[in-house]
Design a protein that fits this description.
Helices cover 56% and strands 12% of the residues. By secondary structure, it is α/β, with parallel strands linked by helices. Helix 6 packs across helix 7. The N and C termini lie close together (11 Å). The mean pLDDT is 96. Bound molecules: adenosine-5'-triphosphate. Adenosine-5'-triphosphate binds next to helix 1, helix 6 and helix 9. Adenosine-5'-triphosphate (ATP) binds next to helix 1, helix 6 and helix 9. Its main location: cytoplasm. Its EC number is 2.7.1.24. It catalyses: 3'-dephospho-CoA + ATP = ADP + CoA + H(+).
């Protein structure tokens, strides 16, 4: 089986930035957010099941899943939320494993924002946490999304804490400095992961 590194980190920590640096080294990415959209794309079993359960009112005018409406719909309905999670979580897990299997690089980076929170660390051989201070998480996210700091802080507080993530990480990448420094850190980790995947597949 293929060697899989689970890449995680809090909101605005730099997961996408780090993942793209690994991709530039030729490493295949499997992105949980992308997969979560793929399994409910128009025409899929996933979207059809959701329409059967919630009705066509959770669709946009163009027939795509209206994620905001669906979120609203399950927000105050614990049973609906459970139903939805029981539908989606196995499909997402299965599709991620399929993409890992089909990947052509020596190892794969699986990008999962809630890796520890959702227990997906069980699917990977090694975990890599992108680490920055909560202050930087807030300032970078505010700048990127044009949202207010309180909103970002609420999300930070809903996620697994910085100290817990660091305690559970096999590897940590510090993203508090320049992108050029980050790139060097990624290149060093890439060499290490090539070595580990070589042993894994031997
Ligand atoms: P989210 O979980 O919110 O989707 P993320 O973990 O994928 O976020 P990125 O989108 O990669 O994080 O980074 C957050 C923002 O910070 C982006 O605008 C990115 O360009 C910027 N950024 C990332 N790394 C650095 C850095 N070392 N220096 C300055 N800005 C950075």
């Amino acid at each position: 089986s293929k060697f899989v590194v689970g890449l995680t980190g809090g909101i605005g920590s730099g997961k996408t930035t780090v993942a793209n640096l690994f991709a530039a080294e030729g490493v295949c990415l499997v992105d949980a957010d992308v997969v979560a959209r793929e399994v409910v794309a128009p025409g899929t079993y996933g979207l059809n099941a959701i329409i059967d359960h919630f009705g066509t009112e959770i669709l946009t005018a163009s027939g795509e899943l209206d994620r905001a409406k669906l979120r609203q719909r399950v927000f105050s309905d614990e049973q609906a939320r459970q139903w939805l999670n029981q539908l989606l979580h196995p499909m997402i897990r299965q599709e991620m494993l399929l993409q890992v299997k089909n990947a052509t690089s020596d190892y794969v980076i699986m990008v999962v924002p809630l890796l520890f929170e959702n227990g997906l660390d069980r699917l990977v051989n090694r975990t890599l946490v992108v680490d920055i201070s909560p202050e930087l998480q807030i300032s970078r996210t505010v700048k990127r999304d044009n949202v207010d700091a309180t909103q970002v802080n609420n999300i930070i507080e809903s996620q697994c804490s910085r100290s817990e993530k660091l305690a559970r990480a096999d590897d940590i990448i510090d993203n508090q400095g320049e992108i050029s420094t980050l790139k060097q850190e990624v290149q060093a980790l890439h060499q290490r992961y090539l070595q580990l995947s070589g042993n894994h597949n031997a």
